Amino acid sequence: MPAYRAPLRDMRFVFDEVLDAYATLQSLPTQREFGNDLGGAILEEAAKLAENVLAPLNGPGDKQGCQYDPQSKSVKTPDGFKAAYQQFAEGGWTALACTPEFGGQGLPHVLNMMVEEMVCSANLSLGMYPGLTHGAINALTQHGTREQQEQYLPKLISGEWTGTMCLTEPQCGTDLGLIRTRAVPQADGSYAISGTKIWITGGEQDLVDNIIHLVLAKLPDAPDSVKGISLFLVPKFLEDGSRNPAFCGGLEHKMGIKGSATCVMNFEGAKGWLIGEPNKGLKCMFTMMNSARLMVGMQGLGIAESAYQISLGFAKERLQSRSLSGPKAADKPADPILVHPDVRRMLLRQKVMIEGCRALAYFTGLHLDVAHEHEDAQIRERADDLVQLLTPVVKAFLTDEGHNCSNEGLQVLGGSGFTEDWGIEQLVRDCRITRIYEGTNGIQALDLVGRKLGLGGGRAVRSFFALVEGWLKANPEAPHAAAVGKALKQLQQATLWIASEGMKDPEQAGAASVPYLRLFALTTLAWLWSRMALVAQQKLAAGSSETRFYGAKLKSADFYVARVLTETDSLLAEVQAGKATLMAFAEDEFAA
Amino acid sequence: MPAYRAPLRDMRFVFDEVLDAYATLQSLPTQREFGNDLGGAILEEAAKLAENVLAPLNGPGDKQGCQYDPQSKSVKTPDGFKAAYQQFAEGGWTALACTPEFGGQGLPHVLNMMVEEMVCSANLSLGMYPGLTHGAINALTQHGTREQQEQYLPKLISGEWTGTMCLTEPQCGTDLGLIRTRAVPQADGSYAISGTKIWITGGEQDLVDNIIHLVLAKLPDAPDSVKGISLFLVPKFLEDGSRNPAFCGGLEHKMGIKGSATCVMNFEGAKGWLIGEPNKGLKCMFTMMNSARLMVGMQGLGIAESAYQISLGFAKERLQSRSLSGPKAADKPADPILVHPDVRRMLLRQKVMIEGCRALAYFTGLHLDVAHEHEDAQIRERADDLVQLLTPVVKAFLTDEGHNCSNEGLQVLGGSGFTEDWGIEQLVRDCRITRIYEGTNGIQALDLVGRKLGLGGGRAVRSFFALVEGWLKANPEAPHAAAVGKALKQLQQATLWIASEGMKDPEQAGAASVPYLRLFALTTLAWLWSRMALVAQQKLAAGSSETRFYGAKLKSADFYVARVLTETDSLLAEVQAGKATLMAFAEDEFAA
């Protein structure tokens, strides 16, 4: 099984050459000094960590899993995880994009996303522990009091402690209005939190000394809906060292991410403190959730990259049958399966999806930095619109493609892929959850059509269309400009359909949502492939010696347009098919 | 987790009402007596076995798996498997469609496929042990000597012994020309077989007293290609009771089907006997393989049905959020998620694929019986053409849809689907191998475009097109006849493209094969949905009281045409995109 190698060359291509990200970042007051040298060095260090420390623990972590001890209610993570986590924290990786005020390095969010891609390629289970901490950091940074920030942020940012997000309960996943966990005000200003939370990543583990739970709960007089939930901070250990009664009641037995402790958490009158305003917990939750959604997208991308490397390595080595156009490795008993057209189809689908998704993710991440830090309010707003619009697309499409690519990769390996020996079946299993958690991909699609298309009265989506149209106008000779234009028209048609039909009847929008999100993503990727091909063309015209790399970009763009983008016709038709055939069924007509 | 219930009503609908199968079968000399009473009773008995005996062992079998003991080189199957297998064998289920001459019941092959669907819905791992025996039975029936048949068939057909298919070696999967296992002639007319085979289902197990291995190997003077392989019969125990040195060297650790023993088999000069002619092993292998491929298709269908039942049960019970058109279960804290359009989309995709695939499978199975038994040679040939043409479609499409449906089903469950509690993640894992074994689905697509389209100079595919066109002409008012006609034209266009381009350059056919097979399947399903809808319409017009059942059929056909068949546009475009963008890549251009 080939060892994971971070795709640094491609990451640089997207970041530096296509997006010109250093120039954009240097226009932000906080990133004036952030240049090629620093960015490149950090990415190389992250690559080493991912390749040498995290990746070797991925397979063993899956096999060993996490162990729960009902006596002590403690959880043991797989061998090696603790040391690797400590190396991660001590290397400052948790702190990378956090505010320097509390010990963070203040580096760009987009850089953090790039690191996250590598971490998730190497070891999703391990990467989730520090990953979840960021939700807690974001919530505290934006909604905590100064005192709360001073008390908790330094140790969360340093990675000395980790954080969790405690949202789900047995009767309540997507619909947070159904939460039953209660918070009763205490005389000292704290709250007594009681209830059961499930699927809590890292709710209990042996990596760190203290765990800071962020818990959604209801105040005694709260309205019985999402307008009645509040966010509380509940540490495992209190300031005086005493154990807060927030105990792990067991671990979930899951299809994948077995090295990640997914806990049932019982809060038995645990001491907690309100974060933000009473009954405004949903807003705080979205603060945690939005950045988490982008990060889950990176998980899908990271896994897809790993799967691609394994399947490409296999296809180059595995000798089986002769090429249909005559032997290619006449000295060997058969040709490498890479010669066969359909094996190439499977590999190239992975390749163009991964490289296209990478461009989409970094494009979004770069706008996240602009949205946070630019001095011009109008530019901030425009960037924030884009990030909001694209966040559900990044989350859903990158994880759907993580699923598709890892399965396509497994298929390249045939029977070998189904065995544990090659590690790719683990990637398929691990990736499966990314389409579900932090809001299922169906919920992402509803977010896109229900909230994001309407953002600012359609401002966000109009501004995105204008961006693509402006680029096409400025680059009419770019490779595949006409195909991008055609896909964009289809997307605009679909958008118009949803705007007019969905306005009259929200179930029309719901029925269209999933194919619409995919149409949105494929169109955006077409645009980014055209941009990437244009850059490659320019580099070659300027006499670059990297003819292999840039030549492959041009060919990949060709493949994407000829054999992937064709899907948009079907998606538009499905959007316009409307809800009729879905809603016609009575409940008892579903069973055969 | 809802218990599996065999979909007997739908099976009867397809078999009896749509295909009018009893009439066709009664026209065969061997099935004159096979009627509704007998067929119905057998299906009901099979349903009981699947629901009550096999299904309860599926989850426990996955968790426990098979154990290998290196000392004794023996394999222990999960608890309960042996007793359930014996019940299966004693019930005569292995013998169902086997020849009465050696103890079989001589019932139709299509009935056997229907039973197989239920068995695989209930417990794929367990079903594989008797399933593989059929390969050995078929090879012996068609290629064995009278003496071999008398010696082995009775105990294989009764299920007292099981059979295996030993094809794959470490260096050789798809490309059987690379086989290294050797067969050296002995003075007594037997052969000494030496070599290593991998991925041998049931190569060793504790269910039965003897295992009959059918082994591909090369004679000393054999040509170095597929023209040099021969088939041998190698029993675990010889007639005198002595142990033949054909030992299990270990078990594969796999993603799924953990209750099925997937063995490495070491043949250490084991005694074997030639089946059929020397160097004609490939022909014998295809005898085993072709019926195995239809059966693997049934595995995909069976798993899809199980996944659908679980996800539908969940969607009816799980309360989460309110319907977009106002509360539907006002007395409850939220509505069942079945009210949401996108949940319906996921469920209905499963439903129409499953019911359409069931029709395709039984249609093919019925022609298998006609091809074997009809008195008129011309009718036999026409039926055999259809079976040969549709076998790769059934194998690949039904397992691809088993994969898609089980994953769509898991998605309906959200986080619950990712846990082991609901059993659906096991279905996803178990199903994954069906797209690979007995020829990967890519190989099926190559078989379709490379062998089957050219069958009899295109006779098979022309006769299939004529069948559909004839039906459309005879039933111009059938629901969705126009949509079927449009899809058929697209399929014919694609077929013409492959015939003309693939003739000049086989890599063009290779590049088109996978989207072409899917286009073929979706078009065939459209035709079958139109047929099913027409029957439903007629039943309702005739005043049937089953308005729910037939009404749902009409709505399902609407859904299929409006939201699934739309994919054909994209598939035709992908077929016609040709090989250029695939073959343009040099080997070193695949890596990023």
UniProtKB/TrEMBL annotation, chains A, B:
<dbReference type="Pfam" id="PF00441">
    <property type="entry name" value="Acyl-CoA_dh_1"/>
</dbReference>
<comment type="function">
    <text>Involved in the assimilation of dimethylsulphoniopropionate (DMSP), an important compound in the fixation of carbon in marine phytoplankton, by mediating the conversion of 3-(methylthio)propanoyl-CoA (MMPA-CoA) to 3-(methylthio)acryloyl-CoA (MTA-CoA).</text>
</comment>
<keyword id="KW-0285">Flavoprotein</keyword>
<keyword id="KW-0560">Oxidoreductase</keyword>
<feature type="domain" description="Acyl-CoA dehydrogenase/oxidase N-terminal">
    <location>
        <begin position="43"/>
        <end position="160"/>
    </location>
</feature>
<dbReference type="InterPro" id="IPR037069">
    <property type="entry name" value="AcylCoA_DH/ox_N_sf"/>
</dbReference>
<dbReference type="InterPro" id="IPR046373">
    <property type="entry name" value="Acyl-CoA_Oxase/DH_mid-dom_sf"/>
</dbReference>
<feature type="domain" description="Acetyl-CoA dehydrogenase-like C-terminal">
    <location>
        <begin position="465"/>
        <end position="585"/>
    </location>
</feature>
<dbReference type="InterPro" id="IPR009075">
    <property type="entry name" value="AcylCo_DH/oxidase_C"/>
</dbReference>
<protein>
    <recommendedName>
        <fullName>3-methylmercaptopropionyl-CoA dehydrogenase</fullName>
        <ecNumber>1.3.99.41</ecNumber>
    </recommendedName>
</protein>
<dbReference type="InterPro" id="IPR006091">
    <property type="entry name" value="Acyl-CoA_Oxase/DH_mid-dom"/>
</dbReference>
<keyword id="KW-0274">FAD</keyword>
<feature type="domain" description="Acyl-CoA dehydrogenase/oxidase C-terminal">
    <location>
        <begin position="279"/>
        <end position="448"/>
    </location>
</feature>
<dbReference type="InterPro" id="IPR009100">
    <property type="entry name" value="AcylCoA_DH/oxidase_NM_dom_sf"/>
</dbReference>
<dbReference type="InterPro" id="IPR025878">
    <property type="entry name" value="Acyl-CoA_dh-like_C_dom"/>
</dbReference>
<feature type="domain" description="Acyl-CoA oxidase/dehydrogenase middle">
    <location>
        <begin position="165"/>
        <end position="268"/>
    </location>
</feature>
<dbReference type="Pfam" id="PF02771">
    <property type="entry name" value="Acyl-CoA_dh_N"/>
</dbReference>
<dbReference type="Pfam" id="PF02770">
    <property type="entry name" value="Acyl-CoA_dh_M"/>
</dbReference>
<dbReference type="InterPro" id="IPR036250">
    <property type="entry name" value="AcylCo_DH-like_C"/>
</dbReference>
<dbReference type="Pfam" id="PF12806">
    <property type="entry name" value="Acyl-CoA_dh_C"/>
</dbReference>
<dbReference type="GO" id="GO:0050660">
    <property type="term" value="F:flavin adenine dinucleotide binding"/>
</dbReference>
<dbReference type="InterPro" id="IPR013786">
    <property type="entry name" value="AcylCoA_DH/ox_N"/>
</dbReference>
<comment type="similarity">
    <text>Belongs to the acyl-CoA dehydrogenase family.</text>
</comment>
<dbReference type="InterPro" id="IPR052166">
    <property type="entry name" value="Diverse_Acyl-CoA_DH"/>
</dbReference>
<dbReference type="GO" id="GO:0016627">
    <property type="term" value="F:oxidoreductase activity, acting on the CH-CH group of donors"/>
</dbReference>
